[in-house]
Design goal:
With 273 residues, this protein is an alpha/beta fold. It is 41% helix and 16% strand. The chain has a six-stranded parallel sheet, sandwiched between helices. Helix 1 crosses helix 12, helix 5 runs antiparallel to helix 8 and helix 6 runs parallel beside helix 12. The protein is elongated, with a radius of gyration of 20 Å. The structure holds nicotinamide-adenine-dinucleotide (NAD) and zinc ion (ZN). Nicotinamide-adenine-dinucleotide binds next to helix 12.
Length: 273
Amino acid sequence: MANEAEILRAADIVAGAKNLVAFSGAGVSAESGIPTFRDPGGIWDRFDPDEVGTTGGIFSAAAKKPEVIREFLSETVETFEKAQPNPGHFVLADLERMNILRSVITQNIDDLHFQAGNTRIFEVHGNLYRQRCLACDKKTKLTKEAYLSQARSVLIDSKEFELIHLLSLMPLCECGSSMRPDVVMFGEAVQAVPESIQEASTCDVMLILGTSGVVYPAASLPRYARGVGARIIDINPREHPFADISDVVITEKTGVALPRILEQVKKIKPPSK
Ligand code: NAD
Ligand code: ZN
């Protein structure tokens, strides 16, 4: 079987970990149907990051060319409505339940690690379903269904779309101000940085899962882990941006490689009943 030796080495390292931390990127959700940013056919092949990658860009484009923004947001709503955790996400939840995985640091905003069952998650780029007040900073998390059904009614089911419809998607905070999705757009401050650096600097094994490693400061986290001597396993079907600091690289999709690793880990360290 492809990558057999690498899978066995990775399983050995994972089974022996005392503080395993996973660091995930868009690739981990690719098998859930959410396109990555930089793979061919991804979002940036079709939409201009200056228009849809910043809050100001979205509002100004919604005023000038609402159809482009409607298309981008409608596609996003339809993609996220369909997305469910895939086998890669479920393996991380199993590893947490087996007391092997301590935490997940993710660059994803899609909530799929929570939906799979992980509980200790640091979301450096925020969460699409959490709303943040523009005035008082209060945060509220909505259910995926509540949030997306409202977005669907405005973006997909209504006949027209203008800037005002986009504004109607921003709920009111109890302080009276508007709330926006708590996701990190280009140029905005990354979240949970001290906690993520703390996790990376105190782990003994880090799984790097489906990230191109070009978005900073998140991409520096594996180097914190390496700096304290952690062993690094990088799983990615196309590229290995952390090859220079990795003990094992596995050229495979995470939804395929992680279940194979878990199967081997269970042989080395059977889960307690
Ligand atoms: P990226 O798009 O830059 O890179 C994706 C990486 O995933 C690539 O290296 C690719 O080879 C790899 N990949 C593709 N399919 C895979 C699979 N099945 N299994 C494993 N790996 C696979 O993504 P990034 O490094 O996370 O950086 C992009 C930024 O975009 C992130 O910071 C994130 O905030 C945001 N983003 C989030 C989502 C999401 O929430 N699901 C989706 C797209 C982008
Ligand atoms: Zn408020």
